[in-house]
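Now for a chain:

_____
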Amino acid sequence: QLQLVESGGGLVQPGGSLRLSCAASGFTLDRHAIGWFRQAPGKEREGVSCIGGSTGTTNYVDSVKGRFTISRDNAKNTVYLQMNSLKPEDTGVYYCNVRIGHDYWGQGTQVTVSS
């Protein structure tokens, strides 16, 4: 059974860092692109970053370029999102996603950036 489980969220002050994890089961990460999305209160879910399957090519939304880094550990079948220099506007629930036939989502992890 395909499953994604996010972890690593929390409360952090502006300028702080967090590392999110997305542990996958039921499929092999390096064969599929994985995306990180976030949803702030009252806003639509938006794509933040993604990493390609076989190529490992990475992409970022402009608002996080230079601050966030996506990576993958194939041995652990886990994708990470390192978030540095966090801003209040980064607050939201972060989800990872894979599309295999249809979209699969994890349960999300809350990130709150506030002083």
